[in-house]
What we know:
Layout: H1 7-26, E1 34-39, H2 43-46, H3 55-64, E2 67-72, H4 78-85, H5 87-91, E3 95-100, H6 116-128, E4 137-142, H7 152-164, E5 167-171, H8 174-183, E6 188-191, H9 201-210, E7 215-217, H10 233-241, E8 246-247, H11 255-259, H12 261-273, H13 277-292
Parallel strand pairs: 1-2, 2-3, 3-4, 4-5, 5-6, 6-7, 7-8
The chain binds zinc ion (ZN).
Amino acid sequence: MPNWPLAPVRYAQAAIICIASLASAWAADYTGPLLDAHLHYNEEAWNGQTGPHPLPDVLARMQRNGVRAIVANSRPNDGTKALADAPQTRAAGVTVVPFVRLYRNRADYDNWFRDETIYTLVQTELARGTGAGPYKGLGEFHLYDSANANGPVARKLMQLAEKQQLAVLAHVDDVAIDLLMAHAPKARLIWAHTGIGGAPAARVDALMARYPLLMGELSYRPGLTCDDGQLCPEWRALVTKYPDRFLIGSDTWVNQRWLYYDELMRGYRRWLGGLPPDVARKVAWDNGARLFGLPAP
Ligand SMILES: [Zn+2]
């Protein structure tokens, strides 16, 4: 009769786990403000105002979803500037946090990290600013081969960001996080998707512990949510372990994502509602607001 005296304890533990997951499945959705920390307003969305998603369309999507601030970055930067400059954006109650996109076109995705003209483009944009004030970050940029994190322009841009206290939105793997942070240990790096290739939660945990300024944005993150639309257990543990370090985002990188904007935000509200309210509020709004110095909406 091995372990029989422990059986009641085990039943009790199992019951507590069941009750906790039922409680999050039944929890009401989060209803507070959202900060979309990964938004693109690319050329094909507006396309000289004849595209399928002109300003009134995208602003209405943000407004009806309670998105009160956005990190905007667009290819080319005109999309971000259109959002930042428009009186309609302010009228919709949306604060724009502009980031400098490093790309003029698709070809730049694969070459920016060694292309000096990109460094010049960034400096020109930073000097110019936007109608919503100075740029507050660089990116999103991509590194499909983490070794390119050591490209000369990647290094210079990380150091520029650190010096000017600009955030950096980087779509990279976990190896590149180490390389980028080595260039600029005090840089405010936002890890786009927190590892779109699915870096294990334990590896994310280790990077969060090693780099106290590292933030994780959660769009497209594999393994984030489970069948009930709530965070999977290991991600619930990570987010509650580092409640000040995660952000949500839409990543409207193609027009199709605009069509799903409502659904994406509903999905976030669902799993945010399953978290303790103070943690939900931080991930939804406070973490980004603190990073970018935004007032309460
Ligand atoms: Zn993106």
